[in-house]
């Protein structure tokens, strides 16, 4: 019987099963119910707090008796059980996604006593793009044009993959773009429900700033919503400040870049049931610009 097909019982722990499965693959093979049990029995060991907000946190963790590092993001959610189950169902899709441009998800579980959801995912030692550009800014520098081009290309390829699977990211911002130790760029927090996006907006300051106008107005998300947020993100890291300055301060340039991104021909962003255009083709045009 394979490791991933067996439920961990109260008398078993992950350590007892490592003989049947290489420890480096354990986090990839666990079912959501296994993650739930691991959390309830104290097998998730927090090594370092990576970030914390009003009602949530991100930590670097490891499973007891194993060596594989993973990130654990915990977000407070609505107490309504139906809402919680809806979020869990939607997040379960993330585990089926596989691309070198997106963070690999390992599992999701509920913390019922504190009304929160935890997501175990690939640990990216390079940190977030938000921290990287702010560190450069603090040292009187900024991210160069060539690295930004590579970052943009990786993000767009990640979005192309997600959109090919009919997944809209919904929450693109510098803190949701991660770097591996080797310097690879990956998207995280993709495909989350509107309910969870709202929870994260309250938890981690800044989420709402990157929302597309249609999202702010309560309208339906679309492919162009991701493009809007991406445009803001690229402009921010290239100029070391958020593109829309406080009232009274001069506007940033080139604002024309953002205008161009959000005004790409609608025909190239129409869903395939209408004009049979594949979502994965949406960004091939953009990459040639």
From TrEMBL:
Top-level lineage group: Eukaryota
Gene3D superfamilies: Phosphorylase Kinase, domain 1 (3.30.200.20), Transferase(Phosphotransferase) domain 1 (1.10.510.10)
Residue ranges annotated for the Protein kinase domain, each copy included: 44-289
GO molecular function: ATP binding; protein serine/threonine kinase activity
Binding site for ATP: 73
Entry keyword Disulfide bond: no
Pfam families assigned: Pkinase (PF00069)
Alphabetically ordered keywords of this record: ATP-binding, Kinase, Nucleotide-binding, Serine/threonine-protein kinase, Transferase
GO BP: MAPK cascade
InterPro entries for this protein: Kinase-like_dom_sf (IPR011009), MAP_kinase_kinase (IPR050915), Prot_kinase_dom (IPR000719), Protein_kinase_ATP_BS (IPR017441), Ser/Thr_kinase_AS (IPR008271)
Family recorded in the similarity comment: Belongs to the protein kinase superfamily. STE Ser/Thr protein kinase family. MAP kinase kinase subfamily.
Protein name per its UniProtKB record: Protein kinase domain-containing protein
Source organism per UniProt: Pneumocystis jirovecii (Human pneumocystis pneumonia agent)
């Amino acid at each position: 019987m394979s490791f991933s097909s067996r439920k961990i019982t109260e008398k078993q722990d992950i350590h007892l099963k490592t003989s049947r499965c290489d420890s480096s693959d354990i986090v990839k093979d666990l079912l959501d119910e296994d993650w739930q049990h691991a959390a309830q029995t104290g097998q998730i060991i927090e090594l370092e707090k990576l970030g914390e907000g009003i009602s949530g946190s991100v930590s670097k963790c490891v499973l007891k008796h194993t060596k594989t590092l993973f990130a654990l993001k915990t977000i407070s959610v609505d107490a309504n059980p139906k809402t919680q189950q809806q979020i869990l169902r939607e997040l379960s899709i993330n585990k089926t996604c596989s691309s070198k441009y997106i963070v690999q998800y390992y599992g999701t579980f509920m913390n019922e006593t504190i009304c929160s959801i935890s997501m175990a995912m690939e640990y990216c030692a390079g940190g977030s793009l938000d921290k990287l550009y702010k560190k450069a800014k603090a040292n009187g520098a900024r991210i160069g044009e060539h690295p930004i081009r590579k970052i943009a290309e990786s993000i767009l390829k990640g979005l192309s993959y997600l959109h090919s699977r009919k997944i809209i990211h919904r929450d693109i911002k510098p803190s949701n773009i991660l770097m591996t130790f080797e310097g690879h760029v990956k998207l995280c927090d993709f495909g989350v429900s509107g309910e969870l996006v709202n929870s994260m907006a309250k938890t981690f300051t800044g989420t709402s700033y990157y929302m597309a106008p249609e999202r702010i107005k309560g309208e339906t998300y679309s492919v162009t919503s991701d493009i809007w947020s991406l445009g803001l993100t690229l402009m921010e890291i290239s100029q070391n400040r958020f593109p829309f300055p406080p009232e009274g301060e001069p506007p940033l340039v080139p604002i024309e870049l953002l205008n161009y991104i959000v005004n790409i021909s609608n025909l190239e962003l129409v869903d395939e049931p209408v004009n049979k255009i594949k979502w994965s083709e949406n960004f091939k045009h953009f990459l040639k610009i």
